[in-house]
Task: structure prediction
Amino acid sequence: MRNKLTFVIVAVIILLAIILYSSTAVNSRDIDVEKEPESNLQSDTSECKGITLCYIGKVTKVVDGDTLYIDDLRIRLSLTNTPEKNQQGFSEARNFTAELCKIGTIAKVDQDDKQPTDKYGRILGKVYCANNEVLNAELLHEGLAYILRQYCKVSEFATEDWAQQNGCT
Result:
């Protein structure tokens, strides 16, 4: 009986340790991710600001110009809006995102502190892709997106140059 009780206690402790580790790893600002050799991103998260999620992972899917998956996380670009399917410019914006953030490459997400998720449960943030370029800014610079001005007052990134130059004042 004593051996069974010891076994149960050890099993519970191991299970709790696994649960604790997995829940803190996703929220950690220092996640270690095995990187592909073609990535130009640094493994540190120093460019991330604030207190919310700073995540480095592989691009697994590009939904459209302003939505993509990094690992299993569904990411929506903060402040940046591209055309929807069946709207003019959709393909160009989606293709641009797919080229800058190629499937299988490493990307970094700095979650928006003031607006961490949208009404659909997507993580809102600034995304760094190839050559450490900010996808949000590059889409705006190329004329493939516009600033969602109604969110400028509730976004951590509203004071950044790319947001200010495109309508957040």
